[in-house]
Structure formats: C-alpha cells, structure tokens
Amino acid sequence: ARASHWDKYLAKLSSVGSISEEETCEKLKGLIQRQVQMCKRNLEVMDSVRRGAQLAIEECQYQFRNRRWNCSTLDSLPVFGKVVTQGTREAAFVYAISSAGVAFAVTRACSSGELDKCGCDRTVHGVSPQGFQWSGCSDNIAYGVAFSQSFVDVRERSKGASSSRALMNLHNNEAGRKAILTHMRVECKCHGVSGSCEVKTCWRAVPPFRQVGHALKEKFDGATEVEPRRVGSSRALVPRNAQFKPHTDEDLVYLEPSPDFCEQDMRSGVLGTRGRTCNKTSKAIDGCELLCCGRGFHTAQVELAERCSCKFHWCCFVKCRQCQRLVELHTCR
Ligand SMILES: *[C@@H]1O[C@H](CO)[C@@H](O)[C@H](O)[C@H]1NC(C)=O
Ligand SMILES: *[C@@H]1O[C@H](CO)[C@@H](O)[C@H](O)[C@H]1NC(C)=O
C-alpha cells in the first residue's frame, strides 16, 4: 500500500513551481521522511529531480500514445490509476522511466555547471585506443545514477526491501538507470584545417531521453512475469514460467497481469478507450480493431490546416501558404 504514494510524489514533484527552500521539501506530499531530509540537504539538486519527474511523465505519454493504457495522469489520485499501484507491467515502466528521468536530469545539470556538488566526469581523459583525444565535458552519469539510487530507491529500502513489491520496484528502478548506461554515446568534434579532423576530441554523453524511453518501451513489451522465491536466507524474484529465460538486470519484471484497459473503470483509474483516435489500416495495437476492443469506431471528416507551397526567399526566410486538407479521423465507439 505504501508503494501507492509513489505516483502522488511524482505528480506533485513535476507540478511544483520550484524547490528552492527547505520549507518546500516539507510541503511535498508523498515524499517519505528520508526523502524530505535528502531534499533539504540537496536543495540545489531538487530542481533536476523535478525536471526528471516531468521528463518521465512526458516520455511515458509519448511512448504509450497509441496504446490502450496511455499513461494518462488523472485529476484524482492515484495519479496513474490503480494499475501503477499494483505490481503490473505498467507500474514496472513508470518506475523504470522515473528513476531514469531523475538520473538523466541530475547528470545533465552536472554538465551544465548548474550544481556545486558535481560537474563533468573528469575520469574520462587521455588518448583512446582509437587514437582520439578525450576532452571536453563528459556527462557524469555515475553521479546522476548514484543520486537516483539514493533518492528514488530509499522509498523501497525503508520498507526493508523484502516485500515482493519492494523487490519488483527496486529491480525496475535499476533497469531504468541501466537503459541510460547501456546507451551512453561518444560525441566528437574535428579540429584541423577546414575540418580535416587531424585532431579529434571526444567526450561521453548521455543518449537523448527519447532513446531511453524507446528502449524501456521495448523492455515493457518483453517484460517478465515473476514471483517471489526463497533463495537461501533471502527472497528473490524468479520467472513464473520456468521455461522462460531468467531476466537480466536490464529487463522489466512484474508480479500481476494487467487488466485489458478496454472499459472505463474510474475506481481503478482506467479511462477506457472510448473516444480514442485509432488507425483504420493498422493491424497492431494502434489499429481500430484492437484499440477499440472490437466495439467499432466512428469516422469523421476533419479539416487539417497545413503549411504548403513553401518558397525559399533570398535571404533568408521561407514563406508558406496555409492549405486545408480533408482527412478521415477514426475514433473508438
Ligand atoms: C488518454 O486517453 C484518454 C481516453 O481514454 C484521453 O482522455 C486522454 O486525453 C489521453 N491522454 C493522453 C496523454 O493522450
Ligand atoms: C496507420 O497504420 C499504417 C499501417 O501500420 C501506417 O502505414 C500508417 O502510417 C498509419 N497512419 C497513421 C496516421 O499513423
């Protein structure tokens, strides 16, 4: 039940104006006591935590825009509905993307020089085996990950980390951060006569958050249903189906199957798919057949305003006309 405060905390964090005073930390509903303490001690980092929460919600809604469950936040609590407070696959995704969001935003803040406590990763230096020079500001992902681990995971650790839900949440939090780590990239700049690249300097950079969201969405589709099992003196989560490959640190895991999300059920926070826009020609989940759960769909002609006949004018602007185009819009019954 305590896990249910997580989404409250996310929504609260992402909607608060700014966190610049210790008082704000106390007013943030949904934070547990240990987090309030961390908030006060790390005030300058809290704005990044807030940005991370926003980033996570936006990315979740983007990745799930064509799904029956579209990561909608509800006005009434719990924010994402019961599916996130239960141990479902959707909860797995929300936890993973949120802990990744915090790690990502804190890391970027370090690089931008906003924070006193961290800066660029100075451990990346020298000449690489490929012959380029490490130089410039490498993103300090280790700091971002460590901050996310202590700030986000403390919610689960405070429960003794022994309940199945705590184990599930901790696993998915870590999988979220791993999605950044495994997609770290090397960015380079060429130096030399007219960009001849005689000297190349490179630095390590976090991937765009969109890529992290996409990777986690793939993990969502391939998530493993698990159950708790006693292993020696502790408990661990193992695949419910023994024929399945054991999950890795990077996979998402869940404990309970999800509802089908077809019909509205406000008590569970399920909005249903009535009124959702669907794709008439797609056979996938965004297609009208699946998205509308076989209820059928309405078709309407709508006028779409578009820029057209664009001309480039010397120098330097582009002028377009407004054109109206008729398109068919399908929505679920
Ligand atoms: C999600 O779907 C509901 C209807 O089921 C709709 O009201 C809402 O605007 C959608 N949210 C997003 C973020 O697209
Ligand atoms: C609808 O689905 C088809 C087939 O998957 C795809 O080619 C098309 O781009 C989709 N249309 C829209 C508007 O997303």
From TrEMBL:
It is found in: Secreted, Extracellular space, Extracellular matrix. Keywords: Developmental protein, Disulfide bond, Extracellular matrix, Glycoprotein, Lipoprotein, Secreted, Signal, Wnt signaling pathway. GO terms for cellular component: cell surface; cytoplasm; extracellular matrix; extracellular space. GO terms for molecular function: cytokine activity; frizzled binding; transcription corepressor activity. It comes from the Eukaryota. InterPro entries: Wnt, Wnt4, Wnt_C, Wnt_CS. Pfam families: wnt (PF00110). Its main location: secreted. CDD domains: Wnt_Wnt4 (cd19336). One of its GO terms (biological process) is Sertoli cell differentiation. Belongs to the Wnt family. Ligand for members of the frizzled family of seven transmembrane receptors. This is Protein Wnt.
